[in-house]
């Protein structure tokens, strides 16, 4: 009898401990980072180099320095105009450079990657390779571009060519490669090695990159507390980091189902940060909260930002725009044209996922199935794409394939959002 009582007592203690150790966010952790702030879009460094640029200037060093400052302003504000100004400065540097020609082309290629101008980036990367100099930097760039373009065999070859386990650049790329292959544990192992190198170097740029990316990977792995802590570490280094605040907002929304608090965080972000996709996230949260007025308001803000003549987003928001046309305006022909364009720009599983989703929405189930079977199946582990594939399998009465995906999707509810569980179960 004593043993039974003792066993019950132990079970109660263990149960209490499990309940008490369940992770929860605390607004006191991040409140200080939500305060209104003035975004600085100038600096002594910027003014110094900008003053050297005159009409028909050949002050070569001024242009890459100015481009670097514009790029920094873009990251702080989300304003596309700064990215375009950085492009203009780098184009000028490429035009007039007699030395470091490869380096300036690599810098312009990176700018084009940010603008989703991947084919132009590839051209510049290949030019840099032909010029020579900075071989490892160019091969790293070629890996990055080919990954974006879906040329995975070429990307793997360039990854092999820069193999160096002591290199931060190699470690983050082998992590990305394993993420693409669906090897999340291996991805995290390599990313942790890269983070350790960043910490030993005390390089702020590398630390910010490491902390924000490891936070993402921990979230994918269901390690929500670790994810949250590394977003906070990102903010300790850069209190205005919009990406980290967005990550915390997602945890609050998807893990804790606290839409009101998630919106409060995002409202603070969008006071000074102007990336259109933040409005789409706010619309998603508002929809979960059954606030149709807020959904419409945020969709309007997104559309206004995308179409504003003051902006020049180009192809940066094609994927978002396809979703917008399909799910909110039901302009299926516009969605189809844009999805086909995206496939031409970058024939990745993600782009083909948009095309398959468009055919599905148009009622062209067989066409959607062909895209899934030929361009998506076995080529991606992204939950959002696999969910759409499951919908298409169901529409084509391939129920055994739906069942095969269901369990995997139920393990990705955090990534897909709190509304996804019922949607998955209803497949």
TrEMBL record:
It comes from the Bacteria. The keyword Cell membrane does not apply. Keywords: TPR repeat. SMART domains: TPR. This is CDC27 family protein. It comes from Croceitalea marina. TPR repeats lie at residues 208-241. It holds the Pfam family ANAPC3.
